[in-house]
Design goal:
The chain has one domain (43-67, 75-227): Acetoacetate decarboxylase-like (Beta Barrel). Strands 1, 2, 3, 4, 5, 6, 7, 8, 9, 10, 11, 12 and 13 form a 13-stranded mixed beta sheet that branches. It is mainly beta. A hairpin with a 2-residue loop joins strand 6 and strand 7 (131-138). The chain has three helices and 13 strands.
């Protein structure tokens, strides 16, 4: 079962950052609709027989290489939004598969080298009268969203909440190979979220039908000790599975 605490250490991160002001909007989908979008080697992960797709806008804050303190002035901070689902890789290791990543900071496009589906665009996050508004549009395609949410009170995460939010590796595919990028950070502090407005074409741009179920919404003030490790080609399922350090 997915754990709320990191399942490995990332002792030599290639990037450190905070993920703050994050909203999780999740929809249930039939597993076969999601599986059709996954590459060979990945299987859709299910919770009680259902696949889930999440739209997660947030602020990427204080982005820096290892060894640079968070207190250094001028560190990049910018909005990012991803559309993701949950998968099992070779050997059954769980992780995230990104269907799309929208970003307002072009240097993040370097992650395309391992297949991360970054798309540059215009993104905005604003707060007014207790409401958070996220919006974005992709430069090169008809893909956009507007989301308004009211953060609520802290909640004790259920098993499903942990399953949806606490994933410790991201899978990507590049040049015919699967890649595994380990991630570690403190547990997500979750709050309830009330959806006030949602208009999006991101799911359809990714190849999914428009959501037909009511979304499940959470909010988090965020985590600030994010450590992203070196991306590595995924070993065949017959290899021993060791801890990522």
């Amino acid at each position: 079962m997915v754990a709320r605490e990191p399942e490995h250490q990332v002792r030599l991160p290639v990037l450190r950052a905070g993920w703050t002001t994050q909203t999780f909007v999740h929809w249930a989908y039939p597993p076969d609709q999601v599986q059709a979008l996954l590459p060979k080697g990945l299987a859709v992960d299910e919770y009680d027989g259902t696949a889930w797709v999440g739209l997660t806008p947030f602020v990427m804050s204080d982005v820096r290489p290892p060894g640079v303190p968070r207190s250094m002035p001028g560190l990049p901070t910018f909005p990012e939004t991803n559309l993701r689902t949950y998968v099992r890789g070779p050997g059954g290791r769980d992780g995230v598969w990104f269907l799309a990543i929208e970003v307002a900071f072009p240097l993040m496009l370097a992650a395309r080298a391992v297949g991360a589906p970054y798309h540059p665009g215009r993104l905005d996050v604003s707060r007014r009268e207790g409401l958070l508004a996220y919006s974005g549009s992709r430069w090169a395609a008809e893909s956009s969203y507007r989301l308004v949410v009211r953060p609520g009170e802290p909640v004790t995460p259920t098993e499903r909440d942990v399953w949806l939010t606490s994933r410790w590796r991201a899978y990507t595919r590049r040049l015919g190979a699967l890649w595994d990028t380990p991630v570690a950070h403190e547990p997500w502090p979750l709050r309830a979220g009330t959806l006030h407005e949602l208009d999006e074409t991101v799911t359809r741009a990714a190849g999914l039908p428009a959501p037909r179920t009511e979304p499940l919404v959470h909010f988090s003030d965020g985590v600030r000790q994010v450590r992203m490790g070196v991306s590595r080609p995924v070993r065949p399922a017959t290899d021993p599975i060791g801890a990522i350090e």
